[in-house]
Amino acid sequence: MPSLQHQLLTRLIPVIRGRSEVRDPQRVRRDVLAAQQRAQASPPRRVAARFDVRHEEPVDGSGLPCFEVRAPGAQPQRTVLYLHGGGFVSGLDRFHWRYAARLAGHLGVRVVLPDYPLTPTYTWRDSLPALTGLFERLAVESPHGVVLMGDSAGGGLALALAQQVGMRSGPQPTHLVMFAPWVDLTGKTSGTDEAARQDPWLTLSKLKLYGNWWGAGDPHAPEGSPLFGDLSRLPPTMVLCGTRDLLAPQSRALVARTQQAGVPVTYVEEPGLLHVYPLLPVPEARRAFSQVTAFLNGHGDPA
After folding, report:
1. Residue 298: what pLDDT?
2. Quick check: 119 and 88 in contact, CB under 8 A?
3. Which domains, from first to last, does the chain contain?
4. pTM to 2 decimals?
5. Residue 285 in contact with residue 273, Cβ under 8 Å?
6. Which of 96, 176, 233, 251 could anchor a disulfide with 237, C-beta 3.0 to 4.6 Å?
């Protein structure tokens, strides 16, 4: 049974985050663009005070601005490339920052957080090539390898990036970790309509609208919907998802197809839990963190 904290959050999130269906797509577009203008990607003060946070802008204009988080005085040999969620319309928030800091402190890694361009102004075409170049650079700089990780939209983007890297020669990610990844922009994965009725946070009409924007009008393209792409070249993979999540059917479909492709995959599905619960301030997130770190440290079955 979900914890009391989780039950309370289930009631609060629709109020805090604002859950509504799309009735006027043009108005939604205006609201999204206005929110992006107001947003700040900088770290919370507590993270900035306790960790070494660096901001890097591309020198030649061909890359992506990135933040890097590491423990003070650390010289990490391993990198986590973390791609944030937010429906491809929102940037880094305090939950992403806190999770990145926790990874950096607990694992002794550097966590790189790309500030990738958002839709509706931009699409996957503006991010995926630059992210591929970023991965290749980080792999050269990381003797113990690079982990790809992401939540929701960022989880789907991490999968798409792993597919792009897998088609090239050279270093590959050591692991891929995704929290409730958004891997089918069409929203037509079997079971999605039923899952949407149980989700107190996400709405299917918004996901379809955002997915059409991010997919450049073609939400079936595997670069935007990596569920439809080649899964055979993935590294050892872990997926975590709650059952009160519109994207749970996509997680199940992804795990099934990944297993069919012969890739080792660990799936953790938590009954009654919300979208991207590993990032939320609930006791279940602590268990998820232990499962993820056990997976990344090669300690066998993290369940």
Report:
1. 86
2. yes
3. 4-296 (3.40.50.1820)
4. 0.96
5. no
6. 176
